Amino acid sequence: MSLLPDAVHGEAFAEASRFRGDFYACLTSRRDVLFELTDALLCADGPVTSPVELTLLAEHRRGHGALYDALNRGRVDVVRLRRTLAALPQPKAADDRLVLAVDVSNWLRPDAECSPDRLFCHTFGRGRDQHLMIPGWPYSFVAALEAGRTSWCQLLDAVRLGPEDDVAEVTAVQVRRVVEDLVIAGRWREGDPDVLVVFDAGYDVPRLAYLLRDLPVGVLGRMRSDRVMRRPTPTQLEYAQAYPQGGRPPKHGKEFRFAKPETWGEPDAATVQVTDRYGTAKAMAWDRLHPRLTTRSAWIDHYSELPIIEGMLIRLQVDHLPGGGDPLPLWLWSSATGLGNADVDLRWQAFLRRFDLEHTFRMIKQTLGWTRPKLRTPEAADRWTWLIIVAHTQLRLARPLAEDVRRPWEKPAEPNRLPPSRVRRGFRNIRPTLPCPARAPKPTRPGPGRPLGSKNQRPATRYDVGKTVRRPESISERDRMR
Predict the structure, then answer these.
(1) 83 CB contacts (<8 Å, ≥6 apart)?
(2) Tens digits of residue pLDDT in 18-60
């Protein structure tokens, strides 16, 4: 029995019921099978090992043939589903700010030689610092993060990266679409704090900030420890004092090398925080640093003057890691400039919350079985991915409704603090109270005891075309035919 107030319980039930109806409306072909397949994902006992096993559950009232037919030929209105997800109540940070995390998770398919659009996905091996490249389908996810330590987040979008895609451009288009959907849904209004988008290492953060410069977003991302940035362009007075002999004014300031502390100078902001998991966290920030761009690589098609993309560089150093490893300094670059001490702390804390998305990846892979199906076409993989996102969203909406169905060795959890795996254990008890718009299946063959007739005959096949079957008119004629 839920210990939450009745008002919260009723609001959560109404939101979950409304979302189920909206999701059913987003299914334009094989909708009943796809809807029941999502319910079977949520009501299965234990991890999902194969989609065909879900057809044995009572929540899936159709056969295994209908399941594969729906995955291969069904249709999902992705545009409408994205807007439906954006219209849901979104989690926010402590300062009432929307924080979005972007990361790539791989669906490895090394044995699918005939499947198109596979890429070499970067994975980690069992050895130390062992990096492997395995063929598969990489997916870029966007999720809204919650405040505090939690394993929950709201998945908002997923895009499969193709062989010819530029990661920065595809990610910029994806983030732009999500932010515009949030604005249309009223989750961000004029006067609210800018949406903070957090990236991990591997993204060209200054370029993403340039591509998203017309949106109310701030970009925050991790940078390699061997990077070199440039200080602001010196003013005329500073240039005259530094170069009294004259000459052409420089476009960039002095170098800021991450690996050489003698080039850092005094920070513009410095904070010290004591944390439970990392010990003392020391942050130093330098304002208005930018990379020196060249007409190569991503900027090779930029024919006008290269822009100067300024931001604030943050260096974070902690005492220890939760796993006991050696902590290395963390370098972050924020597109916002002129940040104070409180804003600097908010930035690096938001980056640490980005790792909540890793818990979601592990949950949808190990529990919901996202990468378990051996699907041949990438289009079928896209449909299965959206079903996984909808299933995870229903778990999040049903969190206030779920009971603590725990194992004897597990500790009790507070109300509304259940992890996704425990909410899924009790979803089978919640589902009968929620609306189910899927229609009952129609039998294709007559059941036992039904009278014979023209409606119950075997349907004609292609071998019966052109054949004329003469029905005997009397018993004697029937005997002569024998």
Answers:
(1) 181, 184, 185
(2) 999 999 999 999 999 999 999 999 999 999 999 999 999 999 9
DSSP 8-state assignment for residue 474: S
Tokens matching residue 303: 């024919």
Residue 458: C-alpha distances to residues 97, 431, 444, 467 (Å): 62, 37, 9, 15
In this prediction, residue 129 carries a pLDDT of 64
- Per DSSP, the three-state class of 143 is strand
Asked if residues 385 and 369 have their Cβ atoms less than 8 Å apart, the reply is no
Residue 232: both structure tokens together: 């602001």
In sequence order, the β-bridge partners of residue 159 are 140
Query: Is 90 exceeded by the pLDDT of residue 219?
Result: yes
Tokens at 413, concatenated: 């959890």
Angstrom distance (rounded) from CA 108 to CA 267: 44
Q: Where do the H-state alpha helices sit in 276-419?
A: 341-353, 356-366, 378-397
CA atoms of 8 and 266, how far apart (whole Å): 50
Nearest CA among 448, 398, 450, 455 for reference residue 427: 398
The pLDDT of residue 140 is 96
| Residue count (the chain) | 482
Q: What is the pTM for the complete model shown?
A: 0.87
CB 314 within 8 A of CB 220: no
Distance (Å, whole) CA 216 – CA 182: 11
Q: Is the pLDDT of residue 205 over 50?
A: yes
Half-sphere exposure of 302 (CA within 13 A, CB side): 13
The pLDDT assigned to 404 comes to 84
Q: Are 42 and 395 in contact (CB under 8 A)?
A: yes
Contact 147, 92 (CB under 8 A): yes
Q: Hey, CA dihedral for 422, 425, 430, 431, is it positive or negative?
A: positive
Pairing of strands 195-199, 99-108: parallel
Distance between start and end Cα atoms, the chain: 71
